[in-house]
Automatic annotation (TrEMBL):
<feature type="domain" description="Methyltransferase type 11">
    <location>
        <begin position="45"/>
        <end position="139"/>
    </location>
</feature>
<dbReference type="GO" id="GO:0008757">
    <property type="term" value="F:S-adenosylmethionine-dependent methyltransferase activity"/>
</dbReference>
<dbReference type="GO" id="GO:0032259">
    <property type="term" value="P:methylation"/>
</dbReference>
<keyword id="KW-0489">Methyltransferase</keyword>
<keyword id="KW-0808">Transferase</keyword>
<dbReference type="InterPro" id="IPR013216">
    <property type="entry name" value="Methyltransf_11"/>
</dbReference>
<dbReference type="Pfam" id="PF08241">
    <property type="entry name" value="Methyltransf_11"/>
</dbReference>
<protein>
    <submittedName>
        <fullName>Methyltransferase domain-containing protein</fullName>
    </submittedName>
</protein>
<dbReference type="InterPro" id="IPR029063">
    <property type="entry name" value="SAM-dependent_MTases_sf"/>
</dbReference>
Length: 308
């Protein structure tokens, strides 16, 4: 199985995934509206932000929002439309394991529905911690290994491995996200304790946990109207977020690090560094060269490609 979920291999159009998932989409929007209510700042990074499904939830809270995604094709395809809807948005193609940004830059960052494609979460989160400012806010969504349906299913099969904290690779059946039918893709569900231990070790203090998509079930979605499910969802987000029963969990965390004076940058090129060695880049037209390792990067159809 490939170690990076490269949506470009089969020209996967992620927006099609959302055609029949109105309940899940609005559930996430409701949760994020609440979560972002008191957050604001300058630079903001949506990691694996794709076609900007969630950009509405943070755009007005930050003066310099950036979407970073491994899928160059998705960014190229959606760039015009995104910039029309969100004129201040910047799009960068890069790998979440090797973020091409200066340390201590982002006042906020978000990762939704991406961690299941990341099999070295500690390496990836260490990078994210690096680019956050002291007290920067980080919002993490992950697929929950011990949601209520998974626990019931495991108990019926006397499978006690559900309770250990090892990440769980979903069976290939029905998980072609980012690829084509029949191809394997990383799709990991994480145990809440595994995630919280890792956050603590890295220096990301978890401030609050939220459950989401409590009613994700084909039967419920066929039987009840979306509006009815969403009314209950709102109530469950308020009352049951302490539990681990929902299939999706969101965390709001703070990057704990020593304060240092930071020069604030205004331009996206001022915050970009070489994704390999994190040294300065020299830009010339549509190309950039690392001052140290000399790796060359290019702007392709309006999008800088820093994928390594
Ligand atoms: C399931 S989509 C989620 C998109 C968006 N966050 C949302 O919730 O609508 C996963 C996205 O993560 C991106 N992705 C996967 N692995 C990545 C990596 N290592 N670095 C950057 N982006 C990655 C994919 O290209 C894809 O756009
Ligand atoms: Zn370099």
């Amino acid at each position: 199985m490939k170690k990076i979920a490269d949506y470009d291999t089969y020209n996967y159009d992620y927006s099609t995934y959302w055609k029949k998932r109105e309940y899940e989409h609005i559930s996430e929007e409701i949760l994020l509206k609440n979560l972002f209510a008191k957050l604001k700042g300058q630079w903001f990074l949506d990691i694996g932000g794709s076609f900007g499904r969630l950009t509405d939830s943070y755009y007005n809270n930050y003066s310099n929002p950036v979407i970073v995604d491994y899928s160059l094709k998705t960014l190229q395809k959606n760039s015009k439309d995104l910039k029309k809807r969100f004129p201040r948005i910047e799009l960068i193609a890069a790998n979440a394991y090797n973020l091409p940004f200066k340390e201590r830059t982002f006042d906020g960052a978000l990762m939704v529905r991406v961690l299941h494609h990341i099999d070295r979460p500690k390496d990836c989160l260490t990078q994210i911690y690096r680019i956050l400012t002291p007290n920067g806010k980080y919002i993490q969504e992950y697929a929950n290994k011990v949601h209520i349906k998974a626990v019931i299913r495991a108990l019926i099969h006397f499978d006690l491995s559900i309770f250990n904290t090892t990440p769980y690779q979903q069976p290939d059946k029905h998980h072609y996200e980012g690829t084509k039918e029949g191809s394997k893709v990383l799709f990991l569900n994480y145990h809440p304790k595994y995630i919280s231990d890792m956050f603590n070790k890295i220096g990301l203090r978890i401030d609050k946990k939220y459950g989401c998509s409590f009613l994700r079930s084909a039967f419920l979605k066929q039987t009840f109207k979306t509006e009815a499910l969403l009314s209950i969802e709102k109530l469950l987000q308020k009352t049951l977020s302490w539990s681990n029963i929902s299939p999706s969990i969101f965390l709001r965390a703070t990057a704990i690090k020593e304060e240092q004076e930071i020069k604030s940058a205004k331009n996206i090129l001022d915050i970009c560094v070489c994704p390999v060695c994190k040294e300065r880049l020299s830009f010339e037209g549509n190309s950039a060269k690392c001052d140290k390792c000399k790796t060359q990067y290019y702007k392709k159809e309006d999008i800088w490609d820093f994928r390594v």
